[in-house]
Design brief:
- By secondary structure, this protein is an alpha/beta fold.
- The chain has twelve helices and five strands.
- α6 packs across α9 and α7 packs across α8.
- The N and C termini lie far apart (102 Å).
């Protein structure tokens, strides 16, 4: 590493490339020297470095907070903690996909968050690649359209979750689940409301589930062109409704969902929201 004097004689463009773009460690004393420098560009660079350092501190605090459920279990001696989440409950077409992920102890991955908060598909894919590379174990479970229509979407989501946990190559000692209780789960579990935003393991599972399902829908788009499946992923968008109206219902559409049943001219499936009224008393 060059001395402080040599760095101060280095062109500011090179310092920017080194400490902002490549995020190299900033030598002790450099920031103070840049802030005291008479050049406006040097003081601007110092502000940018400090802003980056503050952003990194905030991200570190966020990631530590995301691990609070895992840390509690790790301190109890349970090292294989699986996060479990699903993707694809609301779409009109395609399977529901769940994932389970066991992360290394004290794992950190910059930018890891609930998949719904990461709108950039390329960023989600990058995170998925890193999670799969780093995870102690990960697996995916799927419930197909026929199962969704037979047992309903809620139970199909639970089925996909159970399949994901059972598919792990290492048996988990505990499962953190996004707002659910998995029937016949092979290990103890805890359901956490909004868990994909509160637990790093669940967030990791949400990324894997989302990216896996998105790829499935892209493959189905190639099989069934003209419906826009690769763009809307089967969700009930105006484009999707229009395609169903113009082209008809596909085998991958969920026939237990109201808009699909309506397009097929079937009677809507309605849940009993209230019990039936009691029979009238017998006439005297």
């Amino acid at each position: 590493m060059p001395s402080l004097e040599e760095l101060l004689q280095t062109p500011l463009s090179e310092l920017t490339e080194r400490f902002i773009e490549r995020c190299q460690p900033v030598p002790h004393g450099l920031l103070a020297a840049l802030e005291a420098d008479g050049r406006q560009g040097a003081r601007t660079l110092a502000r940018r470095i400090r802003a980056r350092q503050e952003k990194n501190r905030s991200e570190g605090q966020r990631l530590r907070h995301l691990l609070r459920y895992e840390v509690e279990l790790w301190t109890q001696g349970m090292e294989r903690v699986a996060g479990v989440d699903e993707a694809g409950m609301a779409p009109l077409a395609g399977p529901v996909v769940a994932a389970a992920a066991i992360l290394p102890k004290n794992y950190r991955l910059k930018g890891l968050d609930d998949s719904k908060k990461i709108l950039d598909e390329e960023k989600r894919e990058e995170l998925a690649v890193a999670i799969k590379r780093d995870a102690v174990a990960w697996a995916v479970g799927v419930a197909e359209v026929e199962e969704i229509d037979r047992i309903n979407i809620y139970h199909a989501g639970l089925l996909a979750m159970r399949r994901a946990v059972q598919a792990l190559t290492l048996a988990p000692e505990y499962a953190l689940v996004d707002a659910r209780t998995i029937p016949e789960c092979p290990c103890p579990q805890k359901g956490i409301v909004h868990g994909d935003a509160l637990s790093m393991s669940i967030a990791a599972a949400s990324i894997i589930a989302k990216t896996t399902r998105d790829r499935m829908m892209a493959e189905l788009d190639a099989q069934y062109p003209g419906y826009g499946l690769a763009s809307h992923k089967g969700y009930p968008t105006p484009q999707h409704f229009q395609a169903i109206k113009e082209k008809g219902v596909l085998p991958i559409h969920r026939r237990s969902f109201g808009p699909v049943r309506e397009a097929l001219g079937l009677v809507p499936l309605q849940e009993e929201l209230f019990p039936p009224p009691p029979p009238p008393p017998p006439r005297p």
